Amino acid sequence: MATIQGFLLKEASLECTALELEIRHPYEDSELFELPLRRCPLDDGSVSVKPCIPLDVVLDACAVFTGDYTRRSTLCRDRDGTQPVESPLLEAGVYYLVMDNDPQKNYPVFKSFHHWVPPPREKLPRRWFTSLAPAEKTAKWSFPPSYVSRKNHSTLSEQIKALDGQCALSRAVMPLEPSHIVPVKWANWYEARGIARQLHYTRAVPTDLPHRAGIHDLRNFLTHTYDIHMLWDLHYMLYVPVKGAFMAYVISPVNWVIDLHCANLVLPDRTDGYLLFIRFALAIFGQYSGSAELLTHPDASLSAADFETSSESVSEGDDVARIVIEACEAGGIELPEDLAAVWSDNLGYRSREHAILRSRWFETHPQIRMVSDPSQMDTSSADPEVED
After folding, report:
1. How far apart are CA 65 and CA 288, in angstroms?
2. CA 53 to CA 20: how far, in whole Å?
3. CA 347, CA 39: separation in Å to the nearest integer?
4. Are 288 and 304 in contact (CB under 8 A)?
5. Cα(196)–Cα(211) distance, rounded to whole angstroms?
6. What pLDDT score was predicted for residue 127?
7. Predicted confidence (pLDDT) at residue 114 exceeds the cutoff of 60
8. Alpha carbon distance, N-terminus to C-terminus of the chain
9. Which pTM value belongs to this model?
10. Phi (first) and psi of residue 248, to 5 degrees
11. pLDDT of the residue at 373
12. CA 122: distance to chain centroid?
């Protein structure tokens, strides 16, 4: 049976229509998460007739929620667990995640990235690792001398761009900017979870990173063009391992992102797949839609205050407009906030929080609503007054 084959960017033309894959918890018959699927290039040179996704990618997503990486779970087409999925590719539709062959098992789940506990390195499926950063841990230094000194954040950024020389996804050589794999927003979470101790080389790179600055480890960076960096930060695509390489799987309904779908990545030698898995989990939690009735995983953190947002990051209250502004600024473009707010809708960002955030933003900028929403404009006067 044919399997998905990644391609170099813009070597394939794929239709834009996306259909949904829905994963449900059989005990409550409650939705866990859903993913938009697209047609994919196959290793026989053809394109899939229907939208699809590798089964392994979906099972990895399920493991993020259940915390089980031993494959005791099965995806079934029915709630009773009598129709297990056997194909390596999943098509759109409804599937039930059955644990321990018991469709009546009320298994608990992690409900947010904030409270998620990543697996030990040795439990992660080996397809997430590379020959240069294998599953085994080591304390032996294997990095070039250029990785030794951090100096400061500015020189670190320039060093990364010089080392990589191109966008990991598009191969473009400009305009480039370093992108954190685990975002700076999660710096406290990164330290509290001891992520550095789970990497192939278990010490900081470079060695003189300041205390609690592990989020700026060189291995936690990929280089992108600023527009692809923005799309990645909006979780419009997943970076997943397929047939020994990593590729981008687009999960956004926005059509103009389709050129990136199933494109192979060129990863720098320093890249550790464990960090890419954490980024995958962060995006997957953005698709979570479980009900309050589902049991919370017993290993979940009890106190969200342990991982307060870093002062260097975008705050929880900032919407996609702020991300658009920052991405444009990185490319040397000054974008007004009102225009960014309008563009945020055109980008198709539709998380559950976005509608609330955008509504609050317009409540504090009533004059902007008149520009961005024609239905709010007062056409009875040539010079309408705007309330303070």
Report:
1. 9
2. 11
3. 21
4. no
5. 12
6. 94
7. yes
8. 64
9. 0.77
10. -95, 125
11. 43
12. 22
Domain boundaries, the chain: 320-376
Answer for the pair 358, 340: CB distance below 8 angstroms, yes or no: no
User: Is the CB of residue 283 less than 8 Å from the CB of residue 238?
Assistant: yes
Spatial distance between the Cα atoms of 353 and 358, rounded to a whole number of angstroms: 9
CB burial of residue 382 (10 Å; 0-12, 13-18, 19+): exposed
Strands 176-180 and 89-91: unpaired
Distance CA 287, CA 357 (A): 18
Nearest to 48 by CA among 103, 85, 5: 5
- The DSSP call for residue 301 is -
User: If you ran DSSP here, which 8-state letter would residue 288 be given?
Assistant: B
By the 8 A CB rule, do 38 and 279 touch?
A: no
The pLDDT tens digits of the residues spanning 286-318 come to 999 988 889 999 999 744 445 544 433 333 334
Q: Beta-strand (E) ranges in 55-128?
A: 73-76, 89-91, 93-99
Decide: 60 and 280 in contact? Cβ < 8 Å.
Answer: yes
